[in-house]
Amino acid sequence: MSRFNADQGLQFFSLALTLVTASLIGLVVVFVFIESLPVINADVAGFFDTSQAWFPLEGQRGLMPMVAGSLLCTLGAIALALPLGMASALFSQYYGHSSLVRPYRWLLGLLAGIPSVVYGFWGLTVLVPLIGRYQPPGASLLAGILILTLMILPTVALTAEAAFKAVPASYLQGAHALGMRKAAIAFKVLFPAARQGLIAGTVLAITRALGETMAVLMVTGNVVEMPGSVFDPVRTLTANIALEMAYATGEHRASLFFSGLVLTLLIVFMVSYVHRREYARQ
Length: 282
What we know:
mainly alpha, MetI-like fold, 2 domains, two-stranded antiparallel sheet
């Protein structure tokens, strides 16, 4: 009887915490939406008009260059971090010797804990001048992609390693018993069996990259324009909010809240897309 009551109590407690968490997230989204209403009611289409620049005090609220900057930085970083992070996890879990794996895991944990402003400072003083030697000004989309790659790489590597650890040992033992080589086991057994965990790590990396502010702000140049190449400066949605919220009032302030709403919808869309692709494969 006591065990039954304990199970019921834990179930109720878990449900209550889940509802509280969902309610808090919902309240934040509703708050951002309400604060955005003045400009939504005025001219929501203007935010997505590519012919409009970003001069909110003059009624021009073109967000598309910053939406493009956010997406390009995120997709570029994901394209680099995913193969590197999964290769790192494969080395740690399957190929590496323990004398190398232990300090390497410690290094990954250290990288995951470094504040973003430190990454940004390093990028501003080292990475930007290095890129500027070959293609001025240096502060660019490429710098943003590289600094984001460095920031999300530990997330991808650590979540991928956890996913590989969760694969039952019997799968690998059976593959070895069949005489499969290590590479074949990795790509035909380990990766498919760990797919759910790898997708979860990818989603975490996407949300981390889209939501990053300080490091990206410091290395991308913060020019509101569509980039013609990876060497052009860009401004992301998060950087725009951080730069202007301190002095924004009226419709300018509402425009920044709408930027936050667009960013939230981008995250929802990208996460939903990843999960939808996974469900389609199943």
